[in-house]
Amino acid sequence: MRVVVALGGNALLRREERPDAAVQLANVRAAVAALAPLAREHELVITHGNGPQVGILALESAADRSLSSPYPFDVLGAETQGMIGYWLLQSLQNALPGRQVCALLNQTLVSAADPAFADPAKFVGPVYDRDEAEHLAAERGWTVKRDGTHWRRVVPSPRPQRVVETRLIRLLLQSGAVAVCAGGGGVPVIRDEQGQLTGVEAVVDKDLTAALLAEALDADALLLLTDVPHVSLHYGTSEAEPIGRTTPAALRAQRFPAGSMGPKVDAVCRFVELTGGTAAIGALQDARAILDGTAGTVVTPTGRDLDGRLDAHEDLR
C-alpha cells in the first residue's frame, strides 16, 4: 500500500516539555521506531507539524536586535522543515539500513484571497496563561486565542491548494525511497501577477496538506498521528466518548474545535470522500495497529472494515 503519515507537532514536542534539541531528537527517534515497521511493508510518505517549533523560532527572531524586522513565517517554516527533516532523515536511515530516505523542502500553493488571512486561527509556539498571552499580544501585536486550558499565539492558516513538488515526491516513491516532505504543511506561497512564486506570512495546516498530498499521490491510506489515541465526542469532559470506526458523514455531523481537532477531522473526511480510501486519527505509538484498523478513529466510506464488520460506534452513522 501507499501510505501518507502526518506527525503532529505536539507528538514531536509534547506540551510542557522543554524545546531543547535533545528532547525533540529523542521524540523523533521514538516516532521513527513506531513508523519503521510501516516503511518495511509499504510505500511511505511522512509529513510533520511544526507549530511548537516555528513559534520558538518566531520568538527568537522577534527578540534578535540585530534584525531590522523578524523573519517572515514562510522563511521560519522552511527552517523548521530543514531541522525536523534532518532529524527524521537520519533516524529513518539508522532504522532502515539499505533503504533510501529523502527529506525534501516543499512549497504549498495557497490563494492570496483566502479569508484565513483576515482571521488568524493556527496555533504556533508555546502555551501561556491568559494574562501572559494578553500581555504578549499587546506588546508584540499578536493575535492570541484559547487552546484548551491554555492560550497561544495564532497566525493565518490559508487552505492548501497544491504541493508544488508533488511530481518529484511521486518519483521518489516510484524509486522505492521513503519521502519526508511537506513539513509544517509546506512553505506557504502564492503566484503573483507574473506567475512567479512568492512566500506569504502564514502557516499551512499540515493535516490538510497531508490529505491533499495523499489524494494527489493516489495513496491508499492517510494516517494523522498525534498525542491522543482517538477522536472523542465531548473531549475533556466526564462524558468523553471515543469514536472508533466511522464515516465522513458521521464525523462531519459533530462539532470539533477549529484550532485543534477540527482540521484533522476535515482532512480525513476529505480524503475518504474524494478517494474512497481509508483515513485515521490516533496515537503515534499505535501507528501499525491504526493501519490494521484495530486502534484509533478509522474513517471509511461505509464505516465497515474489509470483512464488512462494524465496531461499537455503529450508532454514529
TrEMBL record:
Keyword Kinase set for record: yes
Entry keyword set: Kinase, Transferase
Keyword Amino-acid biosynthesis: no
Residue ranges annotated for the Aspartate/glutamate/uridylate kinase domain, each copy included: 1-274
Gene Ontology molecular function: carbamate kinase activity
Family per similarity comment: Belongs to the carbamate kinase family.
PANTHER family: CARBAMATE KINASE, CARBAMATE KINASE-RELATED
Name under which the protein is recorded: Carbamate kinase
Organism: Streptomyces marokkonensis
Lineage, highest ranks first: Bacteria, Bacillati, Actinomycetota, Actinomycetes, Kitasatosporales
